[in-house]
Amino acid sequence: MKYRKEKSGYLIRLSRGDLLFDSIISFSESESIDSAFFWGIGAVEDVVLGYYDLKKREYVKRDFPGVWELLSLTGNFAKAEDGPIIHAHGVLSDPDNRTIGGHVFGIKTAATVEIYLVSLMSGLERRFDPETGLKLLDI
């Protein structure tokens, strides 16, 4: 991973084999960032996407093997009682330009992932919401 500080945030480039979530957490710890929003594009593999089934109150996950174009990645991370939580959604395309998308559980960099990360001035936290069963942003 390489990065550069910009006026309003950080430009981060992940290298082949870097895991998205591990890289963002490691970077944020090294820069003393406890909450941020980020956006990204790139080429990825070993993708795990899913969605939240509100009735069952559980995430449904699905693996997507192979290499994919990461067309759009949007997410944030915030503190929670049990450590930082990354919440990210992504849209990807296959070699035939068919798209898939959903809640991102895991992505490994295939060629590169380019991220722009903006840290928040004050800490953001997630707290359990009994109505949804999720840890929602405490704003």
Give the SSE map.
Blueprint: E1 2-5, E2 10-14, H1 20-30, E3 36-53, E4 58-78, E5 85-93, E6 99-119, E7 126-129, E8 134-137
Antiparallel strand pairs: 1-2, 2-6, 3-4, 3-6, 4-5, 5-6, 7-8
**SS strand fraction:** over 45%
Assembly type of the chains comes to single chain
Radius of gyration: 15 Å
The total tally of domains equals 1
**Which structural class fits the helix and strand makeup?**
mainly beta
Order of helices and strands: EEHEEEEEE
3D shape: flat
Description of the molecule:
The protein is mainly beta. The protein is flat, with a radius of gyration of 15 Å. The chain contains one helix and eight strands, in the order ββαββββββ. The chain has one domain: 2-Layer Sandwich (60s Ribosomal Protein L30, Chain: A), CATH 3.30.1330.80. It starts with a strand and ends with a strand. The strands form two sheets. Strands 1, 2, 3, 4, 5 and 6 form a six-stranded antiparallel sheet that branches.
Summarize the structure.
Strands 1, 2, 3, 4, 5 and 6 form a six-stranded antiparallel sheet that branches. Strands 7-8 form a two-stranded antiparallel ribbon.
Annotation keywords:
8 strands, 60s Ribosomal Protein L30, Chain: A, mainly beta, six-stranded antiparallel β-sheet, 139 residues, two-stranded antiparallel sheet
